[in-house]
Amino acid sequence: MKQDRRNVLKKSAALIAAASVVGTVKAEAKEKSKKKGYYTVSFSNLLFIAGKGAHFPGDIASHTKHVLDEIEKELTNAGSSMQKVLKVNVYLNDIKDYAGMNEVYLGRFGSEPPVRTTVAVAAGGVPGNSLVEIDCIAYI
Q1: Could you give the residue ranges of the DSSP H alpha helices within 23-135?
Q2: In order along the chain (140 residues), what is the average pLDDT of each group of 10 residues?
Q3: What is the CATH number of the domain that holds 120?
Q4: Which domain holds residue 131?
Q5: Using an 8 Å Cβ cutoff, are 51 and 38 in contact?
Q6: SS3 99
C-alpha cells in the first residue's frame, strides 16, 4: 500500500507539473453546497475534497466522526476510498481538541494512513460552528 501511494503521488505530481507548464489544467468543480462551501475537484486520477465541517452542536469526537464519514461518502461516490487518500489537512478550532480528534481519526484510513497536517486556526476559527474541518487529496 505504501509503495502504491508513493507511485501514484509521483505520477500525479508529474502530470500536474506538465499540465501547469502547458497551461491546460482543466478541473471540474462540483459545488456541493453554496451555503456550506463544500467542494470536490477532480483532475486526472486525483480527487481534491475541501471544506468538510460539522455544522451542528456537539463535541470534537462527534464532529470529527461526522466529517470523516462525509469524506468517506464523497470518496466512495467518486470511485475512491479512505485507503487511497494521500494527504489530509485537519483544521481545529482549538488545539486543545487535538487528542479528541486524533482518537476518532486513528484507524479511519487503513493500516497505512496518509500524511497529515493538523493546525489550530487563529482568530475567527473554523467557519460556521464546526470544531473541525478536514480537506484531503486522494487518487481514483
Answers
A1: 60-77, 98-105
A2: 65 57 39 50 91 92 97 94 97 95 96 94 81 94
A3: 3.30.1330.40
A4: 2-139
A5: yes
A6: helix
Nearest-angstrom CA–CA distance, 9 and 140: 12
Cell of 109: 484510513
What cell does 140 get?
Answer: 481514483
CB 78 within 8 A of CB 47: yes
Q: How many domains does the chain have?
A: 1
> pTM value?
0.75
- Mention every residue, 6+ apart, whose C-beta is less than 8 A from residue 99: none
